[in-house]
Amino acid sequence: MAERPPATDWATDFDHTDPRWVNDPYPIWDELRQRCPVAHTDRFNGVYFPTRYDDVKAITYDTEHFSSRRLVVREVPVKAASPPITLDPPAHGPARRILLAAFAPNAIKALEASTRQICAELVDRIAEQDGCDAAEEYAKHIPARVIAHLLGVPEEDGDTFRGWIQDSLEEGITSYEKAMRGFDGMSDYFREQVADRRARRARGEPLGNDLVSTLLDAEIDGRPIDDDHLVNTLRLLLIAGIDTTWSAIGVSLWHLATHPEDRDRLVAEPELIPTAVEELLRAYAPVTMARLIVKETEVGGCTFQEGQMVMLPFPSANRDPEAFPDPDKVILDRAENRHLAFGVGIHRCLGSNLARMELRVALEEWLRRIPRFTLADPAAVTWSQGTVRGPRRVPVTFGH
Amino acid sequence: MNEPTQLRVTVDRERCQGHNRCYAVAPELFELDELGHAREVGDGIVPPALWEKARLAEANCPEEAVSIHST
């Protein structure tokens, strides 16, 4: 990635790719929340950064002034329609509706056994070692395999998927070419998958109940969706389902590897894991979305200028002391937890039920086989940047 | 202060976005449609043994779509 001048003042010149921000953003956000509470930068053609729970929520709900047409803060905007996430009302609702049933709790429940098998296979191999990289050898593989299973594409293509996502979401912040390489790679891949299903159907072969097959027949307003819509939606499901959950699993294991009292408590009380999952999602929410300001407005005493972007830092909202008592402390049995890890409003993360199930099962299987583990080298931990933040290296040793 | 004689939960269908938190916290009080959106079971009357669960369902809905009414 190109060298960029370091940020001089987080309130007026922030840069979310600055290594200090990437490595530990929470103290920066705490300071901004007290000082501003909406930061701004002229970098990336102008971006606002609200830090408070109420402001982030208000902007997320306001689809009149804040459009989803652009969702990622970049040097050069990329034209990549990804229905339904890049749509505003009224086009958004019907495009989302064709996907909801496949991600509803009952449908996700049917994926739990195969997810558990994926996790158990990985952890069985890892548990034989003295330690491992919990992000690289465990967390990273789970969502790619689960989503491949759901879409009906080969699980072995995980590395390819992750390469495209890295290009489109991380490298693509500053490189238009890499962003397009990622998007085009995914589009070509799904065009082939769709053509393959159509050919099989033409030969009279039965299709499975995977999403590529079932979405072939999806209709909006009584008309079949066109191939561009279909391919762009499939591409979205791939992007949204992999490094998000990889980050959530990785950061949860990172937390437990650095907080032995929390680790021991979950080993002793596995029934607490679903509640703990919510708290880990609150404290370390991976996703920061963005919106394009399409009409000037005011939120939280700050004017938002048309044509600029605004980031929606759900992880900062989740650390707002006005919304959560003792927000920087992970309280595994926190009972009241109205966190925003999956956003709110019409774009609520479609895969939230899937992500929660994967995170719970991943922790259950790991803790069952590897109850004792600690971070081997804090300096070796690295973090992804941009829309999705999570640890990419978490070296741990087992047995103490 | 007098204890309310009866509590009723409701889900605002316009606000519900299918986070599924109410159902996860209190499956006795909520049900989901095929798209994953929630509604209260039956008339929403909460047996006293489930008052705490109803309160948690309200406190965990990110959309603030769950509310409790004393009747």
Description:
The complex is a heterodimer of chains A (400) and B (71). With 400 residues, chain A is an alpha+beta fold. Chain A is 48% helix and 12% strand. Chain A has helices at residues 10-13, 19-23, 26-35, 53-61, 92-100, 105-109, 112-126, 134-139, 141-151, 158-170, 176-202, 211-215, 227-258, 260-268, 273-283, 314-317, 352-369; strands spanning 38-41, 47-50, 66-67, 131-133, 219-220, 223-224, 288-293, 297-299, 302-304, 309-313, 373-375, 382-383, 391-393, 395-398. Chain A has a five-stranded mixed β-sheet with strand order 1-2-10-7-3. In chain A, helix 7 (112-126) runs parallel beside helix 17 (352-369) and helix 15 packs across helix 17. Chain A is globular, with a radius of gyration of 21 Å. By secondary structure, chain B is α+β, with helices and mostly antiparallel strands. Chain B has two helices and five strands. Chain B has helices spanning 21-25, 51-60; strands spanning 7-11, 30-32, 38-40, 45-46, 66-70. Chain B has a three-stranded antiparallel β-sheet with strand order 4-1-5, covered by helices on one side. In chain B, strand 2 (30-32) and strand 3 (38-40) form a beta hairpin. Chain B is globular and about 40 Å long. Chain B starts with 6 loop residues before the first strand and ends with a strand. The model of chain B has no long low-confidence stretch (mean pLDDT 95).
Care to give the gist of this entry?
The complex is a heterodimer of chains A (400) and B (71). Chain A has helices at 10-13, 19-23, 26-35, 53-61, 92-100, 105-109, 112-126, 134-139, 141-151, 158-170, 176-202, 211-215, 227-258, 260-268, 273-283, 314-317, 352-369, and strands at residues 38-41, 47-50, 66-67, 131-133, 219-220, 223-224, 288-293, 297-299, 302-304, 309-313, 373-375, 382-383, 391-393, 395-398. Chain A has 400 residues and is of the alpha+beta class.
